[in-house]
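User: Hi! I'm working on a homework problem where we have to compare a predicted structure to a textbook description. Could you give me the structure for the chain below?
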Amino acid sequence: MGANDIPNDRLGAFCRENHVALTHTGQGALDGLTFGTKDVFHIAGTRTGFGNPDWLRTHAEETLTAPTVQSMLNAGADMLGRTLSDELTYSLSGENVHYGTPVNSAAPDRIPGGSSNGSAAAVAGGLVDFSLGTDCGGSVRLPASYCGILGMRPTHNRITTEGVLPFAPSFDVVGWFANDAAIFERVGAVLLDEPKSNDSAKRMFIASDAFSLVDSAVSEALRPSVERLADRFESSEELQVSPDGLAAWFEVFRVVQGSEIWGNRKAWIEEVQPTFGPGIRERLQWASTIDAATIAKAQGEHTAIKAYLADLLGPHDILCLPTSPRVAPLKGMDTDKLEIEYRAQAMCLLCIAGLGGLPQVSLPLASQDGLPLGLSLVGAPGSDMMLLALAADLFVEASI
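Assistant: Happy to help. Predicted structure tokens:
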């Protein structure tokens, strides 16, 4: 298949410059399914693009395929192609100045969200049955909300990131999208290498400080789903997640993430002097200025927050919060509004699971003015399969 022979890509979701398709190598739980893979996963014999043409140009073909991709092939799925990523995955918008913006089928005049934008768009538009992405700051969860699909961020270090370009390893995870509950759960079982869970959550916490950060219209749109969900549990109660305030937690996340990104990419950026789009360019410049004392302080605070969250959620507890402060923003929005104001608001919600290393699933259970809104469930470390089973059940119930 040639570089431009992307099947059915009416949405601009797939990479063209380094396109590759792979046929299944075995049989199993994913027989007959198709998937897309974010352009940060290595595929043997091809170059990984990382959402940036200068990266693609300056890196050689890979010798090994990422184990997560191989596990999908071994379980019977066919990979139709690589999917677009934001540059170096350092954005939540899905607008790539070099490669364009994949179409959000749920809202074609709006962004799909990033950085796993192509993976989300391909699933939402029915080009593939499921897709692989990565999530550091929210790059699976936010696009899932914007595009009206299921998206999962697993427990940190639960799924191998071998063969995946690192961004900020303290938070990096491999995640996935689907628009079908059974497929979503089957993909999770293969990636997590665990059977379907018969365990069940018993107590739900409603994150009052997270809900207070979103507009009242968003909160009201989510309320019926929250109330239906609460009825499933032995008990439910409101809880303030962060005693320090979620904005303070985001600042901790931002510093640790930025320091690791710059540590990983400093040598390449200084040598190549690559061209970056708006928002990404400014964040990388900021990351280069973080001093050692600020980093050390944030790392200590991260350790404390992670321990606090581990104590807060028991093995049968679920935390419920909005995935996003809003529906998908319009394409072409002012950079400062989208990349600074909107990003900061979203990260105050998304940083919770990141700092705690917690599993989180976004479910398309609500809408505002006909546009999707995700509701998120967060579990204790290692509760991924229980969380996944609950999410699948809720999605099926909501679809009936």
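For your comparison, note the following. Residues 223 and 366 are 9 Å apart (CA to CA). The longest helix spans residues 246-272. Good luck with the assignment!
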